[in-house]
């Protein structure tokens, strides 16, 4: 019996040794074959921000995708998942886009309204500025104007986000080796770029930038590149198309991909936030579709390489979105999918003389009583956006969509990551941690 026990122990030890060797070989082979090494810093960084995109926005987009295609899978499912807090440097807990973008661009908390300055209004060094110090190229592609809070926080320094002319000036004046620090600039904002006091478009062209104001000519741009396509922001995706951000993302990647030391690209789905402020669910979901298309463009780029990191997050949540309201266990995504015009555009058309009942009949699937139409119409004396909110309330009641605010909320946002270094962006973190990790990668 003792002999058998000893023999069994020897066999058990041998088996354990064989298992350990096998596990070591399997792990080693896995590391050799992995295209994204844990210890490798990415050469290229693509930071994609869904302005105002909370977790419920992503749920709503998933339900819409399932309704349209029959699949619950979305582009977000290709990424690792984390969560981030977004509070500013005060006791309000609710951030604006400027403070949140400053946190994402610098790793430092600041006050609401601040553009890459701290609470004492000292300039904070941004991810783009650090990238240029390390000979990387930079780019931005946004559907807002390029002087808007999120892109502004990566290249400029202002005490207040509303100082848009001064913010835009930084696109020319913030230079390294006598060249502006942003190599590819794509977005709206001609109103702030071509002014009576300065023509920033002409100044950038004098610095060697190719320029277009026509989306159809994106492919003709050469680096450094400037594309300014609208006076302020782009038209809403619901009122135009859901490919505009992906087209700019594709152009930016093609221009930056051969950068010898790599690049940092900022992509923003700017108007998810704008639709959230309007509590317009159909508008919001069209922007989510536009955003998802841009993510897929970035994913197709990164998945063919072993040197690129994608990080997707939001600066904050907008609207306090709920996929149910009025105490009902119901959300009519099938009806929301049939809405074909933003309420802001409807309001503008009514103020131009169009009939509200006709517009609602043509662009929404619901039936409205004369009293409901009259009640919404009674607010037509207001400015376009406040009037639109009353049309939105009517539509949301019909679709059973809930919003708790026309502003931002303190809800944590999700963080998605893919590629080289993506393992550092899982679990819970603060938005400043995202910037600190990206800056660390750039410095390596």
From TrEMBL:
This is Alkaline phosphatase. InterPro entries: Alkaline_phosphatase, Alkaline_phosphatase_AS, Alkaline_phosphatase_core_sf. Residues 1-34 form the signal peptide. It comes from Saccharobesus litoralis. Its cofactor is Mg(2+); Zn(2+). Binds 1 Mg(2+) ion. Mg(2+) binds at residues 51, 148, 150, 268. Keywords: Hydrolase, Magnesium, Metal-binding, Phosphoprotein, Signal, Zinc. Zn(2+) binds at residues 51, 273, 277, 315-316, 408. The lineage of its organism: Bacteria, Pseudomonadati, Pseudomonadota, Gammaproteobacteria, Alteromonadales. The keyword Cytoplasm does not apply. SUPFAM superfamilies: Alkaline phosphatase-like. One of its GO terms (molecular function) is alkaline phosphatase activity. The keyword Transit peptide does not apply.
